[in-house]
Amino acid sequence: MKIPPEFPELCVWFDPQILAVSPEVEDEFDFALKHVTPQQQQVIKHFILDVLENVHDSKELNRIWQGANSNTRFDSDDGIRMYLEEIVRRID
């Protein structure tokens, strides 16, 4: 599955180091979403919905998340899926 460029543009902001030095950031999802346009958010939302519906292979799911250039790490596929679901939920 091809990763649209908008997805890493969002996910790069999910970085524990950025959040640690930015005490004003109360919500990491809102913080990250402020860095992409509404049009980019829609592309991201459609991509994530496609991933959640069609990617059932653990290696592929991890390849997609690693390709997003986020420094947020997960112990399980369920953790990645829950994070992706929350991103979709936050996009209007």
Question: What can be said about this structure in brief?
Answer:
This protein is mostly helical and 92 residues long. It has helices at 6-11, 16-20, 28-33, 38-54, 58-66, 77-90. The two termini are 24 Å apart.
What would you say this structure looks like, in words?
The protein is an all-alpha fold and 92 residues long. The protein has one domain. Helices cover 62% and strands 0% of the residues. It is built from six helices and no strands. It is globular.
Main attributes of the structure:
mainly alpha, 92 residues, single chain, CdiI immunity protein domain-containing protein, globular
Topology:
Layout (H helix, E strand, L loop, with lengths): L5 H6 L4 H5 L7 H6 L4 H17 L3 H9 L10 H14 L2
Give the radius of gyration: 13 Å
**Quaternary assembly:** single chain
Number of helices: 6
Order of helices and strands: HHHHHH
Strand elements, count: 0
Structural class, from secondary structure content?
Answer: mainly alpha
Number of domains: 1
The poorly predicted ranges are none
CA-based shape:
globular
Major beta-sheet overview = none
Averaged pLDDT: 92
Residues in β-strands, percent: under 5%
DSSP helix fraction: 55-70%
Distance between the termini: 24 Å
Protein name: CdiI immunity protein domain-containing protein
